Fold:
Amino acid sequence: YYTDPEIGSIYASIQGAFPNMNVSILEVSQDANTVLFLVDGPQEPGSYYMIKNGRAAKIISAMPEVTAADLSPVQGIKAIGRDGYEIPALVTIPEGEGPFPGIVVPHGGPWVRDYYGFDEWAQMLANRGYVVVQPNYRGSEGHGLEHWRAGDREWGQVMQNDIEDSLLHLVNEGLVDGDKLAIFGW
Structure:
């Protein structure tokens, strides 16, 4: 959301040109004739663009050696936990036929979250044949106050269950092989 209507209008026009992508305005000249922005998404590691005097041009890619063909699609899901709680998660699915080995990659925090966009770890693992699930377990930001507060005093308890259950949800869906599970993170 932009409080400056001119910048908001610029953002809306850029976002319209890049549907289903993340757009970040990085700099705007005082006269608003020059705009530097970044576009990224699950299958786009990031490209920098500039609009100057009404004309847009790509400047550089963040990872020019990575092509869209190297990257796997990402989808948002609601995994069902053992207590029936809906766990918002992102799933990166490799090319090929499942069931695949699965890896859960929990974010740090808890008061942060995973975002829909390019994730180099998830893409690297999917490129090697793993389904990657990134749960926004209870206590994660960005999914409402109730979800955030559901993590209070639950470190190592329901928060950990959410991490495990998000991967087990994919086993139950037949996407992941229940004998080939791992957790990766720090």
